[in-house]
UniProtKB/TrEMBL annotation:
Name recorded for this polypeptide: Uncharacterized protein
Bilayer-spanning residue ranges: 12-34, 46-64, 76-98, 110-135, 156-176, 188-208, 220-241
Organism: Holdemanella biformis
Keyword vocabulary terms for this entry: Membrane, Transmembrane, Transmembrane helix
Taxonomic lineage of the native organism: Bacteria, Bacillati, Bacillota, Erysipelotrichia, Erysipelotrichales
Length: 251
């Protein structure tokens, strides 16, 4: 962890941090308003999919800023949506339904939790390799296997460290990815798919406070701490994106 902290940089990405926070704010407003509405469950699920697809495009845009290259061709954007659609299908269409069906089968639930943990660990690193290939107009069929073979260990080690760090902090603060009641990989995976941005916990508590007409003054300390943690998560995650880019740039 000390090695990770020593490699953090802020000044070179501060503009991207601000941009990321703005995009998080816009996404979270839309998501929280949708969640609070009394709309039909199928319409809500459809809107969640749309928001998730848009968030993948936002993440792709942030990657272009970090890596200082861009490719916004129709083909590239379509591939971004296709990858996110595959992720949604795996997480919501397959794993979530299997968990509901196998809820009373301990052995199968263990297998599903392991599958969810695997997806949780590999999806973002693979996504970054995929985005890097798109942004730099690589031959994806050749580039992705090569990048995975050469860099998977370093990328996964740092990403696992980042995940553990976030889960520990959320557990201590009561965040959305808390493991206080046990580590549920499938639940965290679903949460990361639709609420996996740094500021979601802070905005959710703020939204709930306003909805229930709580005194924001009485919630100030809690909101302030959650905002700082969200900001810190943002810095960590953007540094990881930068780290992946530096690895792939060296090829």
């Amino acid at each position: 962890m000390k090695k990770l902290m020593s490699k953090l940089h802020f000044r070179s990405i501060y503009k991207t941090i601000v941009l990321t926070l703005v995009l998080c704010f816009l996404y979270n407003i839309a998501y929280l308003l949708m969640s609070a509405s009394a709309m039909n469950v199928y319409i809500r699920q459809s809107l969640e999919v749309v928001l998730s697809l848009l968030s993948s495009l936002g993440f792709y845009f942030i990657c272009t800023k970090i890596w200082k290259a861009k490719n916004f061709s129709a083909s590239a954007i379509l591939k971004v949506f296709v990858l996110q659609g595959i992720y949604i299908l795996i997480v919501s269409g397959i794993l979530s339904n299997l968990v509901n069906v196998c809820a009373n089968n301990t052995s199968l639930m263990l297998v599903l939790q392991l599958m969810s943990a695997f997806c949780l660990v590999v999806m973002v690193p693979f996504q970054l390799i995929f985005y890097y290939g798109l942004i730099h107009d690589k031959n994806l069929k050749e580039f992705i296997p090569y990048a995975l073979k050469k860099h998977q260990k370093k990328m996964l080690n740092w990403y696992c460290t980042l995940l553990i760090f976030i889960v520990v902090l959320d557990t201590m603060s009561g965040g959305l990815f808390s493991a206080a009641q046990g580590f549920n990989a499938q639940s965290i995976l679903v949460g990361s798919m639709y609420m996996g941005n740094p500021m979601i916990s802070w905005m959710m508590y703020l939204f709930l406070g306003v909805s229930f007409q709580s005194s924001l003054a009485s919630m100030f300390t809690y909101l302030f701490v959650n905002f700082l943690m969200g900001f810190f998560y943002c810095v960590l995650e953007l540094n990881y994106v930068s780290y992946v880019g530096s690895l792939l740039d060296a090829d």
